[in-house]
TrEMBL record:
<dbReference type="GO" id="GO:0005524">
    <property type="term" value="F:ATP binding"/>
</dbReference>
<feature type="binding site">
    <location>
        <begin position="28"/>
        <end position="36"/>
    </location>
    <ligand>
        <name>ATP</name>
    </ligand>
</feature>
<dbReference type="GO" id="GO:0005737">
    <property type="term" value="C:cytoplasm"/>
</dbReference>
<dbReference type="InterPro" id="IPR050566">
    <property type="entry name" value="Deoxyribonucleoside_kinase"/>
</dbReference>
<feature type="active site" description="Proton acceptor">
    <location>
        <position position="102"/>
    </location>
</feature>
<dbReference type="Pfam" id="PF01712">
    <property type="entry name" value="dNK"/>
</dbReference>
<keyword id="KW-0547">Nucleotide-binding</keyword>
<dbReference type="GO" id="GO:0019136">
    <property type="term" value="F:deoxynucleoside kinase activity"/>
</dbReference>
<feature type="binding site">
    <location>
        <begin position="154"/>
        <end position="158"/>
    </location>
    <ligand>
        <name>ATP</name>
    </ligand>
</feature>
<protein>
    <submittedName>
        <fullName>Deoxynucleoside kinase</fullName>
    </submittedName>
</protein>
<dbReference type="InterPro" id="IPR031314">
    <property type="entry name" value="DNK_dom"/>
</dbReference>
<keyword id="KW-0418">Kinase</keyword>
<keyword id="KW-0067">ATP-binding</keyword>
<dbReference type="InterPro" id="IPR002624">
    <property type="entry name" value="DCK/DGK"/>
</dbReference>
<dbReference type="InterPro" id="IPR027417">
    <property type="entry name" value="P-loop_NTPase"/>
</dbReference>
<keyword id="KW-0808">Transferase</keyword>
<feature type="domain" description="Deoxynucleoside kinase">
    <location>
        <begin position="24"/>
        <end position="213"/>
    </location>
</feature>
Length: 230
């Protein structure tokens, strides 16, 4: 997809001025489309892509089938995985370049709060505290927001067998946890996107509106509710 001339010129102007966000993190609950958007943004800006490796977690499929028995193993695996990934990136100085990530390390505890009981969460927090993760701060965070019913529809459309086991109750609780997390988030400039009725991957108009909004952000909290184009 080719951006409009105006958007391409704006991107180049900010690039020349050194004011493009060099590290962008895309976040949101499962099914909202964060990985697909991260890939498209990486192509648009010519950035490296940093993806969460959920498929490497051997407990995840078991968690979807039986959350109460496999939640702690699943969350601890993700915690150690992100810690290892972060250390590798720091050792290689990969955060010195420009990149798009489909996760925000700051939200490590978000899933744990949703899936773990009180004692398990206390153990998780103790392990997390001892890891002392020093995560780089994104220059921009894009939070894709959609109601649980929309997430369910997209998960069904995607058709991955393990994800189809996810309960509607879990999606509701996860969406609520994300809303609460980003209500208080202030570490980086934040763009909250109402992604319920748009397609940022296959609809060029939706995507170009998002790019235009993104290029206007320098600091603070912003909300993007796409408008129909005429």
């Amino acid at each position: 997809m080719t951006l409009s001339k105006t958007l391409s010129e704006r991107i180049e102007q900010r690039r020349q001025a050194g004011s493009l966000p060099r590290f962008i993190a895309v976040e949101g609950p499962i099914g909202v489309g964060k990985t697909s958007l991260a890939k498209r943004l990486a192509m648009t800006f010519g950035y490296d892509l940093l993806l969460e490796q959920a498929e490497d977690n051997p407990f995840l499929s078991r968690f979807y089938r039986d959350p109460s028995h496999y939640a702690l193993q699943t969350e601890l695996f993700f915690l150690f995985q992100r810690a290892d990934q972060l250390r590798q990136l720091q050792q290689q100085d990969l955060f010195a370049g420009s990149r798009i990530a489909d996760f925000l390390i700051d939200k490590n505890r978000l899933f744990a709060q949703v899936t773990l009981d009180e004692e398990e969460f206390a153990l998780y927090c103790n392990v997390d505290a001892h890891l002392t993760l020093d995560a780089p701060r994104p220059d921009l965070v894009i939070y894709l927001q959609a109601p649980a019913r929309t997430l369910r529809q997209r998960i069904v459309r995607r058709g991955q067998e393990d994800e189809l086991q996810i309960s509607s109750d879990y999606l509701e609780r996860l969406s609520g946890a994300y809303t609460e997390f980003f209500h208080f988030y202030d570490r980086s400039p934040l763009l909250i996107v109402n992604a319920a009725d748009i397609d940022l991957v296959n609809n060029d108009q939706d995507y170009q509106q998002l790019i235009g909004e993104l290029l206007d952000i320098r600091s603070g909290r912003h909300y993007f509710n796409p408008r129909p184009l005429v």
